[in-house]
Amino acid sequence: MNYSKYYPIDILNGEGTRCTLFVSGCIHNCRGCYNQSTWSPDAGELFTDQLADQIIKDLNDTRIKKQGLSLSGGDPLHPANTDAILNLIKRVKTECVGKDIWLWSGYLLAELNAQQQAIIDLVNVFIDGKFEQDLTEPNLRWRGSSNQVVHRF
Fold first, then answer.
1. pLDDT tens digits, one per residue of 39-54
2. 69: three-class secondary structure by DSSP
3. Which pLDDT score, from 0 to 100, does residue 65 have?
4. Radius of gyration of the chain from Cα atoms?
5. Which spans in the chain are helix H?
6. Which domains, from first to last, does the chain contain?
7. Tens digit of pLDDT for each residue in 7-60?
8. pLDDT level of residue 83 (50, 70, 90 thresholds)
9. How far apart (Å, rounded) are the C-alpha atoms in residues 20 and 14?
10. How many other CB atoms sit within 10 Å of the CB of residue 22?
11. Residue 118 CB-density burial (10 A; 0-12 exposed, 13-18 middle, 19+ buried)
């Protein structure tokens, strides 16, 4: 898996202060996407064990209380990403006490395959649906267009 950006401190992508990882790879190619540079699975840098270790360390850093991890992209549920995302989420669940996980994807909850569903079974908030430029509303929270749904588990 590749990633485009990692923010150890983020207040925009989910509730509270978070760590946010933007992965590479997206098949949806939404018109008006603000992150087109992440569409190719080969864009950005290789996601390494060292970065995974850093994310865990940042989530557990007591100097700044972080509520959890946000996963966006690109698309964390892109086939090139699912193995690494599942491993990272499992680590967060076992190594970080009380941290929630948010995940954004262009896939709909009803159309997920078994591996994608295994990931969603471990997250707290899933925002699904492709970005639809014609359905953009500036007052939406946590999503870019009104067709996208915020699922809280």
1. 999 999 999 999 999 9
2. strand
3. 87
4. 14
5. 49-60, 82-95, 114-120
6. 2-152 (3.20.20.70)
7. 999 999 999 999 999 999 999 988 888 788 899 999 999 999 999 999 999 999
8. very high
9. 9
10. 21
11. middle
The DSSP result for 30-57, as a single string, is -TT-TTGGG-STTSSEE--HHHHHHHHH
Q: How many CB atoms lie within 10 A of CB 148?
A: 20
- Long-range CB pairs of 48-57, under 8 A, 24+ apart, other chains included: 51/3, 51/6, 52/87, 52/88, 52/91, 54/6, 54/8, 55/6, 55/8, 55/19, 55/21, 55/88, 55/92, 56/91, 56/92, 56/95, 56/96
Residues with Cβ within 8 Å of 91's Cβ and at least 6 positions away in sequence, in order, are 52, 56
**Is the pTM of the predicted complex or chain greater than 0.85?**
yes
Angle between helices 49-60 and 82-95 (to 10 degrees): 30
Q: Are 98 and 121 in contact (CB under 8 A)?
A: no
Question: Which DSSP letter does residue 107 get?
Answer: S
The distance of Cα 54 from the centroid of its chain, to the nearest Å, equals 16
Residue with tokens 């159309």: 111
- Identity of the amino acid at 21: L
